[in-house]
Amino acid sequence: MGSHIEALEMLIGYHQAVLTHQPPGHPERSSSLNNLVNAIWTRFNQMGRMEDLEMTIEYQQEALTLRPPGHSDRFMTLNNLAVAIWTRFNQMGRMEDLEMSIKYYQEALTLQPGHPDHSTSLNNLALAIWTRFNQMGRMEDLEMSINYHQEALTLRLSGHPDRSVTLNNLGLAICTRFNEMHRMEDLEMSIKYHQEALTLRPPGHPDRSISFNNLASATCTHFDLMGRMEDLEMTMEYYQEALTTLQPPDHPECARILDNLASAIWVCFDRMDRVEEMQSTGTVKYISDCNLKPNMSLSSSCSYSSSTST
What we know:
Elements: H1 2-20, H2 29-47, H3 50-65, H4 74-92, H5 95-110, H6 118-136, H7 139-155, H8 163-181, H9 184-199, H10 208-226, H11 229-245, H12 254-272, H13 275-280, H14 283-290
């Protein structure tokens, strides 16, 4: 790790030296800014220093001024600047950063609609607008987010490496609309998308636990509405799978999934008086290990996937 960081520091130094020989007005300055930004962005992802993120945004903004409308690389710069500002929003929580990232994503989408990264920009914009919905509660943002995810899905056909990301995010956005509007077709659609996402995340996939957790959450809601025991059985099965596939085993989400699983089994026990259910699934051990006190009402939580990239 140390030698890698040293090499990265050296690379940044070289790119900075190149930039000093390419003052404002130099035809290659925007390319040099981009190369320097890539190196500093990598260091930020390695070390998490806010000054690197600020520097990334500053250099990207300068590069954008050198790549006016019509420039072949304007799309790339807009997208990368949006990602960097979105990252700062996640670090600092400033609404102006969220608004700015949305603005840059939207402009990027108007350029080169056939670009190979178009679906990634759609996904990122949908995620940013969905976040604004969670902050502001405006239904038009939720509808817009769903529309962008649906458009991204049309570009991520069967076999596309990020199709499961869009399926997961679309399922979550539609489930959010169900929570707002209580339309059964939205809940059914959400379950369908999460099920397809799961089929694209076989054993060993890093996001398999996310799909199990989100599918359990949606199926749990279906049980709450319809009261069908098969939904409750599936909910428990999905939460158990989410636990066994969660990496690392001490992941911060572990306690919440355990809580939901324990609550589901308690409901099953309450409905059917099946003591063996608690024994066979190890519920008592779950509760003891995590010092949980299950609630008779189930709480659901979902996780978003992101293919955000620069």
